[in-house]
Amino acid sequence: MATFSNNARRLRRLPDKVRERFYDWRAPRYSSGIKFHLWPWSFSDVEHLAADSVSSDRTYKSLLEAELRQNLKLSKGLGVALVGSGRSALRLGLIALRRLRPDRSKIVLPTYCCGSVYDAAVSAGLTPIFIDTTESLNSVAADYLKALDGETLGVIVVNLFGRWMAEDDRQKIFETCRHKSMFVLEDNAQCYRPYPEDSATTRARADIEIHSFGFGKLGMATAGGALVFDQAAHEIWEELKSYHPGSGALALRRFRYFEAGFGTAEHLKSDPDTVSNTTEQYGAEEISELDAALALQSLRDSEKILRRSIEIGRRYAEVIKKFPKVYRFHDSERNIFFRFPVILRDVEATNAFWAHMALYKIELEGMYVPLHLRYPRNGQPPCVVSEELYRYVFNVPNRVSLLPSEIDRIVGALADFGKRRSR
């Protein structure tokens, strides 16, 4: 996460001529900054929500599953497993598929995505095969299909930033993989979107879908994930027998950790139990009742949240596309704007942008380093688009709790930077 002081340091590192050209002006003055994340909850009875169940026959977990089935138009034949994180859900699915096809050891996935996808694949005993991204930051069917061979178990289609793959590309992947007896997993951790009634029976579904309820997601909790599956049901249920119930005490510690980091509970930052929990990798456990309750509250408002997210994203996009020499434009098609990435064109522009946003007191979020630069390539060729773009991608705040004045400030900052760089 970028901070305002980090942005200011980038300004000092700019060449003198660049700094004088773009920043020898009377900067706007703001008394408060716009944070990327804010503490979203205001429960007074959070200790009660952390209890192990609501009642003996109706838990928050069962209510969350019912909400998912309704929102995602899941048929009765589809299974749903609620576990401790999106990473755990993906690992669970991969382990089950590997048991179905122990002769297959490779899994195809984008190099430009979250490292938890790689971690889940490796912990399931698979060899990741990386494919490149595009200028829209999402990989396409042609790249997935080129990477298939006789050892491929399947592919993980990752829908980043709230933008999902075109339906014709999805169909190509699904048809090819099924013809080759391979599996398709769809990672929707950043792309939770309820199915419209008229598409529930016509839109293809992956063999396994992954959803995440981590902090900052649409169905936001302190941690949690859902596995929706049409394959390997026996293997998944058998593996789940070894999972232990989610701990309400640990969920409450995570809750306090996020309150310390993004809320007003400054005293919690010195709590050793809170701090020690920040690196926990949620393993073989079910979702906790507290996290199920938090995610459920968010998902019940999903229609309103999505409508607001799209409204904010489209406002930003209108500004971005006016300055094609400054920003690389990623279109608004098939996009719920879970995140709004700004893609610059070179190192100088990147440093200038961070410094510029610091003047407006707007906090930014850095993005991924391509996986093939972080982990072994296994003899694979370079992914040139990812290697070019990744240094220039940053997210601007687009949380639905932004005030109208804050949205106006972000829009103004994007426009002002575009005008100054276009001179």
Biggest sheet, open or closed, and with what strands and sense?
Answer: 7 strands, mixed
CATH architecture of the largest domain: 3-Layer(aba) Sandwich
Which fold name corresponds to the CATH topology of the largest domain?
Aspartate Aminotransferase, domain 2
Rounded to the nearest angstrom, the radius of gyration is: 22 Å
- Domains (count): 2
Task: Tell me what you see in this structure.
By secondary structure, the chain is an alpha/beta fold. It has 2 domains: 4-38 and 302-421, Aspartate Aminotransferase, domain 1, CATH 3.90.1150; 46-240, Type I PLP-dependent aspartate aminotransferase-like (Major domain) (Aspartate Aminotransferase, domain 2). Helices cover 42% and strands 11% of the residues. The chain is built from 17 helices and 10 strands. The chain has helices at 4-13, 16-23, 46-49, 60-71, 86-100, 115-123, 141-146, 167-179, 233-240, 248-262, 272-276, 289-300, 302-320, 347-359, 371-374, 384-389, 404-421, and strands at 79-83, 106-110, 127-131, 152-158, 183-187, 208-212, 225-229, 340-343, 365-366, 393-396. The strands form 2 sheets. Strands 1-7-6-5-4-2-3 form a 7-stranded mixed beta sheet, sandwiched between helices. Strand 2, helix 6 (115-123) and strand 3 (127-131) form a beta-alpha-beta unit. Helix 5 runs parallel beside helix 6, helix 5 (86-100) packs across helix 9 (233-240) and helix 13 runs parallel beside helix 17 (404-421). Residues 1-5, 20-26 and 274-281 have low confidence and may be disordered.
